[in-house]
Design brief:
Rossmann fold, Arc Repressor Mutant, subunit A, disordered N terminus, binds calcium ion
């Protein structure tokens, strides 16, 4: 158990709000030892944890009580993690539900696919307890800041309207189905329209990833999310411009913003 000691006080810099119940985590993993380890770490970090081993049980658990985040293994018996994720993203009630995917090491390309499908982040097995808790806490913080940000404010850019409270984006009045990460990414880009944002800046603002955890995978993560965001924006996706060798910027064609 020695290797778990590093986890202690990891999030000590940010004490939880005592008025709120601890966030609820649903762990979907069929390998009992990994599930137990994950549950142990998260519980120890002050979270409420439920563990299920199948996709169908995951969906019925979500129906019973909405978790704050799902830690979802890709490889499950029966319905796969990918299928569960697709269902979560398809349903109106759960499409903004944060999901952290667990993938096997050999699935280097698969994890990119996982992000494309709408996972907020992924973790490759074997992972350290520290990494797991950092990712879960980071996703929870992002979800919270998205939900509580800017009371009643609507951020507009041409036909785009970003409801900062309702956490919805409409394009010409038609609602777009964005994941929480895509929402924050778009928000940051539109808020800083006309200014080029480096991948690192986007990571720090939309993912709340600190400078210490950058790297190839992380900048790739930005690229993947940008690609997905562009697809969802359709023609407006062209307004998210690639600034070669540097990053991205949002620019209205008529320079309105
Ligand atoms: Ca598994």
């Amino acid at each position: 158990m020695k290797r778990f000691d590093a986890v202690k006080d990891l999030e000590g810099r940010k004490s939880p709000d005592v008025s709120e119940p601890p966030p609820r985590v649903l762990v979907v993993e069929d390998e009992a030892d990994i599930a137990a380890l994950v549950a142990y770490q998260l519980t120890r970090d002050g979270l409420r944890v439920e563990t299920v081993s199948r996709g169908t049980s995951a969906l019925s658990s979500i129906d019973r009580e909405m978790p704050d985040i799902v830690v979802l293994d890709r490889l499950l018996p029966g319905e796969s993690g990918d299928e569960v994720l697709r269902t979560i993203r398809r349903r109106a009630a759960t499409r903004h539900l944060p999901v952290l995917m667990l993938t096997a090491k050999r699935e280097q390309e698969d994890r990119i696919e996982g992000l494309e499908m709408g996972a907020d982040d992924y973790l490759t097995k074997p992972f350290s307890p520290r990494e797991l808790i950092l990712r879960v806490r980071s996703i929870l913080r992002r979800a919270r800041s998205t939900h509580t940000g800017g009371a009643g404010q609507i951020l507009r850019a041409g036909p785009l309207a970003i409801d900062l409270t309702g956490h919805q984006v409409t394009l010409d009045g038609r609602e777009l189905n964005l994941t929480p990460t895509e929402f924050r990414l778009l928000r940051v880009l539109v808020e800083r329209r006309g200014r080029t944002q480096s991948r690192q800046q986007l990571l720090e603002s939309a993912w709340e990833v600190g400078p210490g955890v950058s790297g190839y995978i992380h900048t790739r993560t930005v690229d993947m999310h940008i690609r997905r965001l562009r697809t969802k924006l359709g023609e407006v996706g062209d307004w998210v411009e690639t600034v070669r060798g540097f990053g991205y910027q949002f620019r209205l064609p008529d320079a309105e913003g």
